[in-house]
Design goal:
GO terms for molecular function: carotenoid dioxygenase activity; metal ion binding. With about 700 residues, this protein is an alpha+beta fold. It starts with about 30 loop residues before the first strand and ends in a 5-residue tail after the last helix. The chain contains ten helices and 34 strands.
């Protein structure tokens, strides 16, 4: 017998999350002319805006997922908006298709390779036979290497190698580096073909870099890191999907979860006991596994010249011990004299991959979540490496021993996912610009059994299941000046705003109109905020973050803000001087949401950093739109709005802008067959070899 949940209702007056942000189609587009639905299109719009978004899997036909899988788990779709024809805007879109895309497509239910199929596990898509799918759905990196006339473009994700795409055709071309140049998280006995590789969704391209002879030598920087078994076990999905529990056991699990969640002290005791027991079990297993499977904490800094082998350095602590990344390295930073690594507030572990391990046993699933989920780190952990120490790195494709470089640790109060930095280092000072996502469990999402924080007896509406989590405190914007040699924080300024800074998310700044590259100094930064929505304000996360150490808004007051709702904003932060302030803003109407902010410069590089336009994806209650703002005057509202009936892109993520595009001509291209054949043959499975011969390799030959 199933007991019906309480009626799913919202507080009176609380806005609803727009339906358009929860849905997406996987339909590719070719030169689709957008319709101007409001305002007038500026005549000096120029260049091309690229946006990426997760759009579901090969088996879901878009979003939403019926089982509550998070909307951020999905294969990447690249959208390009062309502003190079006066008075018109055209859109094209294409799925990112690395080799794992074709393997996923060929192993769908009903195919001859079904037993090797991929399944969604929370934040990732995984096959027990083939490995982790590289979703490539998060961000871009424009590049222009020495001697090249046109920009090249990488598309990136935290859980795999970056891939280069053709800016014109949007075709997926090649990974950055071969498999043998990247270290997987572990050499597991499963011998995965698609090995779990951890990198950064925001690598960096340094167009100002010079070689030892002081000659221009532009280079791309990224990271490749691995974790010891204690962390690896938190990032692999649980194989419980193969089994079910008797109904009486599931009811017992559900009652236990209720017992734990009702009493925070009890929950704390259970969690501490479980962690103690877990550490006791893991100690001998970890010792053995590190020697058998080569599982260990390691961080590599990667440098690439766009044409040759990958060069890397092993980053260690000041005492020479391995550098440990506790969460992820979602973004890195590069300045004239330093490389910056941040342990970002985005967890990638068993709690995030555990979406639906027991599809017929929600009680057991809920109990597992209650026991294993812990808050993210409340501080920003930053590591600084001197660029002068980066000499004669290791080339893994050629063999050789590892080259170690020491990093200095800095701890900054309040956590962050995104940060920016000034390139220049006067007096060895580093200027950081940080969006602090306070008490925001960004790698969580709304589960099928979640209830309202304001009324724990009521389930959240089914339509918002899979939506990203809600922030549990107001966000801050910070400006920091660090001593690059000592790590000392010389000056810090943080600000909040009860209109603008609820759920700071995406950022933009004016790039060089001729090259599309980042300026040497940032003095105006544009941010978006997601606002505060009661529909996704869940009791589980509200309770999880109650003891957040830097809390501004009390948990009780947060519920009051949630009842009224806080609408999203786009705002400009002036940060050129020794302090920061919000100088311009626009708050969106009720039931609208904004993502993927991008600056479109006009004029010359010497013009003011507000000279140009701001584009952003906007989710109305019923459809998707592209809005254009004047970069010098956000407060007046959008200059125009564009849309189309075929425009259904869902929760878009990061974006970039290029002044011009041309077909890719670079010679660099990793041969897919040579890259994967050793891994395929290591499986010693003729059917998997046949799968690659017939369904994967032909797409790249």
């Amino acid at each position: 017998m199933t007991i019906a949940p309480a009626q799913q209702t919202l507080s009176s007056g609380s806005p609803s999350i727009p339906e358009s942000v929860l849905t997406a189609k996987r339909t590719e587009l070719d030169n689709l002319e957008l319709k101007l639905i409001w305002g007038e299109l500026p005549q000096d719009l120029n260049g091309h805006v690229f946006i990426t978004a997760p759009v579901g899997s090969v088996t879901s036909d878009g979003l939403p997922y019926p089982d509550g899988t998070p909307i951020t788990n999905g294969g990447g779709m690249v959208y390009r908006f062309d502003f190079d024809k006066p008075g018109k805007v055209f859109a094209s879109a294409k799925l990112v298709k690395p080799p794992c895309y074709y393997a996923d497509d060929a192993t769908q239910p009903g195919t001859q390779y079904e037993k090797y199929k991929f399944n969604n596990f929370g934040m990732g898509r995984f096959s027990w036979s083939l490995g982790l799918k590289n979703e490539l759905n998060t961000a871009f990196l424009p590049m222009r290497f020495a001697g090249e006339e046109n920009n090249r473009l990488l598309v990136c994700w935290d859980g795999g190698r970056p891939y280069e795409i053709d800016p014109v055709s949007l075709a997926t071309i090649t990974p950055l580096g071969s498999n043998k140049e990247w270290r997987p998280e572990a050499q597991t006995p499963f011998k995965f073909v698609f090995k779990p590789v951890m990198s950064s969704a925001h690598p960096y391209f340094d167009i100002r870099a010079k070689d030892e002879n002081n000659q221009p030598s532009p280079a791309a920087f990224t990271v490749n890191y691995g974790k010891s078994l204690k962390t690896i076990l938190k990032t692999l999905p649980c194989p419980f999907e193969l089994f079910g529990l008797p109904s009486f056991l599931d009811r017992a699990c559900n009652n236990t979860a209720n017992f734990i969640e009702r009493d925070r002290a009890r929950k704390g005791f259970c969690s501490q006991f479980l962690q103690w027991l877990w550490q006791l079990i893991l100690t001998p297993i970890s010792w053995i596994a590190e020697r058998i499977a080569d599982m260990k904490d390691i961080v590599y800094l990667i440098r690439w010249d766009g044409k040759g082998d990958v060069e890397r350095w092993t980053i260690v602590k000041e005492d020479g011990s391995p550098l440990t990344i506790l969460q992820t390295m979602h973004q890195i930073g590069v300045t004239e004299n330093y490389i910056l690594f941040m342990d970002t507030a985005f967890q990638f572990g068993i709690g995030q991959l555990l979406n639906n391990p027991l599809p017929n046993n929600p009680g057991a699933e809920r109990l597992l979540r209650a026991l294993i989920t812990s808050p993210q780190l409340p501080d920003t952990i930053l590591y600084i490496v001197r660029r002068s120490d980066l000499k004669n790195g290791q080339y893994p494709a050629r063999g050789g021993s590892e080259v170690k470089v020491k990093a200095r640790k800095v701890v900054i109060p309040r956590e962050a996912i995104h940060f920016l930095e000034n390139y220049e280092n006067p007096d060895n000072q580093i200027v950081l610009h940080i969006g602090h996502v306070c008490a925001w469990e960004g790698s969580e999402w709304v589960h099928t059994y979640d209830t309202f924080a304001s009324n724990p007896s009521q389930l959240v509406p089914p339509r918002v299941r899979g939506m990203i989590s809600e922030e549990m405190d107001i966000s801050y914007v910070g400006r920091y000046v660090l001593d690059g040699e000592t790590g000392e924080i010389l000056k810090q300024d943080v600000i909040k705003d009860f209109t603008c800074t609820w759920g700071i998310s995406f950022f933009a700044y004016r790039t060089d109109p001729q090259t599309g590259m980042m300026p040497a100094k940032l003095d105006n930064i544009y941010w978006t905020s997601l606002g505060l929505w009661e529909e996704s304000l869940t009791h589980f996360l509200w309770d999880l973050t109650k003891d957040y150490p830097y809390r501004t808004v009390s948990p009780e007051d947060l519920l009051l803000y949630g009842e009224e709702g806080v609408q999203p904003c786009v705002f400009r932060v002036y940060t050129a001087e020794d302090s920061i302030e919000i100088r311009d803003r626009f708050q969106f109407p009720d039931e609208f949401m904004v993502n993927s902010i991008q600056f479109i410069p006009c004029g010359t590089a010497e013009d003011d950093s507000t000279k140009g336009y701001i584009s952003c994806t906007v989710f109305s209650p019923n459809h998707n739109e592209l809005w254009i703002f004047d970069g010098e005057n956000l407060a007046q509202g959008p200059l125009c709005k564009l849309s189309h009936p075929s425009f259904d892109f869902g929760f878009t993520t990061h974006s970039t802008w290029l002044p011009a595009i041309a077909p890719r001509t670079a010679a660099y291209n990793i041969n897919v067959r040579q890259d994967y054949d050793p891994l395929v043959k290591a499986k010693k499975n003729p059917q998997i070899e046949q799968l690659f011969e017939t369904e994967v390799y032909p797409h790249f030959e």
